[in-house]
Give the backbone structure.
Amino acid sequence: MFQVRIHGRGGQGVVTAAEMLSIAAFEEGRHAQAFPSFGSERTGAPVVAFCRIADKEIRLREPIMEPDALIIQDPTLLHQVDVFAGLKRDGYVLINTNKSFEELGLGDFLKDWHAERLCTVSATEIGLRCVGRPVPNVPLLGGFAAVSQLLKLESVVKAINDKFSGKVAEGNIAAAAEAYQVVMREMEEAKKEAVHA
Amino acid sequence: MLKQCEGSHAVAEAVALCRPEVICAYPISPQTHIVEGLGEMVKGGELKDCEFINVESEFAAMSVAIGSSAAGARTYTATASQGLLFMAEAVYNASGLGLPIVMTVANRAIGAPINIWNDHTDALSQRDAGWLQIFAENNQEAVDLHIQAFRLAEELSLPVMVCMDGFILTHAYERVDIPSQEQVDAYLPPYEPRQVLDPQAPVSIGAMVGPEAFMEVRYLAHAKQMQALERIPEYAAEFKAVFGRDSGGLCHTYQAEGADTLIVAMGSVLGTIKDVVDEMREAGHKIGVLGITLFRPFPIKQVRDALHRAKRVVVLEKSLAVGLGGIVSTNVRMALSALPIDVYTVVAGLGGRAITKRSLHALFRKAEKDDIDAVSFLDLNHALVDKHLAREKAHRRSGPVAEALLREVGTVAAKIA
């Protein structure tokens, strides 16, 4: 079972992201369960949503306390919420930012991690450009497909088409594809650097 | 058709497939998405020949449901928590009059303190209201139980509450097989009321009954529920024949063969419990599960049959009988009367407190050694409680409890579990 925890703020589509991730996994024939951490969903307030992906029925109903992957939709949460709580060793981390992990002050904390599992993407900018709104959730899913290698980008596209239609769907598809490419390049570079080091 | 969708959405589709003629509801979390979905289907013309009535309160919702059901319309509503309490008087009337209304209760705690999260206190407060009460373990079962509920309600001429865990199920996206209209039509015939307000054949429904016959009317309500215990397995078997799935019924054992310790629970927590029990079985523990699907009528014989070989029974329940202990466990104890089996009550998950595998592993291991109290509270923050008790001892004006405890624990929104 692969467990993903998504941190963001109310209004950033945190819950929708977890739901879409589960739809993408379902499209690949897998079992998936998405659910929000309930109740605190006010605009701007910290919001958490969860997604489990497995090859058999998922019966477990506890919140995800030891995630395999984290998607952080808002880097300002790093100073407010213990977003890394329980993250598995060498788990995947994808942060919506135009800064590096070092610039975010996470360099020391994650220094022994596999570098290609730590990625960033300016998802808000991509969202603003492709969809016309500063919503980072869908581009981050594209980026997550890249960093985790868990899902195909085309499954994320199917999930987008399930949730949106028309121009909004088109924009989100473009945003997801762009973020996917950004993260793929980032991983390539991390691998190269690892070889040189 | 297999799809990945929200529990509320799946239930709305299932209810629509049952061809309700009147839907009335007042929004309250976590039930709202269900009736919103149905409202859209009525407005969009997907759900035909159905009147969606916006009412001004839950009391009005149940009152409208009573009226439309008495007029012979297949009637559906949904509520939760304070909404269920607000309609309580009419809830008793619906069953007292024998009207086959189907209502979803998206289980949520009751205030004060106000809390929108899941537990079973709301539905269980109405356990003696004369409604059938069925609890869903996952969203597939929630879909299936709604379809069975209309059949049951109309055959028995009794209202049915389908209970599903608020948020944990209503807001969870998971894989659900939505049946076809043909399947549902094959299983659920058009509503043929036992009593109906019909100008062509006038009757009155709802006479005042004095001491001369009140006991008898109430006895018949009880007798009818007892009959339901025999009919429900038949409807579940028929359901399996049409839909190819086991759903509903009275109660279900899991890994119970040769178990010394049996865990009893209702609703979605059964999934987490089963995962824990699988792990413990692999480690050689003789432990199993009994899931109760039907809480009213209470399947006393089947529960006894399922549990009577165990050395001990742990009832893990999301409800609290203040001043006594458990509600489900009190019922289970009655089923086990005169048997030499220890029954432990564990109150868990109140107001949405997460029930984790880690806590269950520890609890079940202690229970196996009979090292738990007759009534205990899973993951209770004893330090927090003790501190407040000390405060009350020290100060006459110790202030409001909820506010004092929140101050102690600090911001909760930032915590994950």
User: Anything to note?
Assistant: The mean pLDDT of chain A is 94.
